[in-house]
Amino acid sequence: MTAPNTVPASPAPRVNPLQRLWLRELGMERLWLRPAPQPVAVPAPQVVVSKTDSPVVEPAGAAAAPVRDVAAPPPAAAQPQVQTPVARAAGPGPGLRNGPPPKPAPKAAVEEAAPAVIPVAEAVKNANLDELREQVLACTACGLCGGRRHAVFGHGGQPTRWLVVGEAPGEQEDRQGQPFVGRSGQLLDAMLSAVGMSRERDVFIANVIKCRPPGNRNPKPEEIAACSPYLMRQIALLKPERILVLGRFAAQTLLGTDATIGSLRGRVHQMKTDEGREIPVIVSYHPAYLLRSPAEKARAWQDLKLAARLV
């Protein structure tokens, strides 16, 4: 590097009276007659190679820029957003590319696909009664499994003459894992005994829903859809002579109707199974309702006698 040149100080300009007058009119008298600046060091011109490889000479007196290697990349803050012809000729820069996008990297060979969820109806179609029980006890097909103590598969005698279908487990059923326990279960046993039936000998008792809904609310449609294949498979395996349905919700679900229980009871309905069998269905009141409304026990007794007369 050469030593900077020193520019000698110039003498103060001399003006005649007429020039002074003109300078005063133009407002430049003080600026023009200002004392000359002290000598300053002027750096020697530097040669900077631009991206087009053409040498550019910076004028003397311009602000001195730091000297850097022309082969070094510019600082990060000065990186261009668009490639110049020189950059394209040299190849793509950081974050820039030419040609088609790269193909995605193949997945690792060890990565396994997530196991497919088997619908309940598909899972139970070949199950026997013991296998079906195990599937019910381990079922997680809907959200009710998260709040249950026990799933209630059902209980009763085999071969099955009557299948009694209730709505859903209550608090006591959830605690014990058995259908129709407590006061409503005692009333049901007395009703069946009055027509010569026993749950230990020839009656199997089950529910439409196998887990207790919170607060004993009615099950939601998605819960019914998830759980009803279990009941349909129970019917196919048990092959009951007749079905006694207890409660409005159970009757509407099993018969696929929204009719009131008052319009459904007192007559015989027919349920057709997937195997083509037709099973007579009798609708009556739920024992828990009879405990709250004893006057309806007479109608429930008529329903039981109607079921018992079926051949």
TrEMBL record:
**Bias kind Low complexity: ranges:** 78-98
EC number, UniProt record? 3.2.2.27
Annotated GO molecular function terms are: 4 iron, 4 sulfur cluster binding; metal ion binding; uracil DNA N-glycosylase activity
Q: Which Pfam families match?
A: UDG
Question: Gene3D superfamilies of this UniProt entry?
Answer: Uracil-DNA glycosylase-like domain (3.40.470.10)
Q: Which residues form the Uracil-DNA glycosylase-like domain?
A: 153-305
Name the catalysed reactions.
Answer: Hydrolyzes single-stranded DNA or mismatched double-stranded DNA and polynucleotides, releasing free uracil
Source organism, top-level taxon: Bacteria
Q: Which SUPFAM superfamilies does the entry mention?
A: Uracil-DNA glycosylase-like (SSF52141)
GO biological process assignments: DNA repair
Identify the keywords attached in UniProt to this record, alphabetized: 4Fe-4S, DNA damage, DNA repair, Hydrolase, Iron, Iron-sulfur, Metal-binding
Region Disordered: start and end of each range?
72-108
Q: Which CDD domains match?
A: UDG-F4_TTUDGA_SPO1dp_like (cd10030)
Under InterPro entries, the record lists: UDG_Type-4/5, Ura-DNA_glyco_family4, Uracil-DNA_glycosylase-like, Uracil-DNA_glycosylase-like_sf
Q: Which family does it belong to?
A: Belongs to the uracil-DNA glycosylase (UDG) superfamily. Type 4 (UDGa) family.
Please give the name of this protein. Type-4 uracil-DNA glycosylase
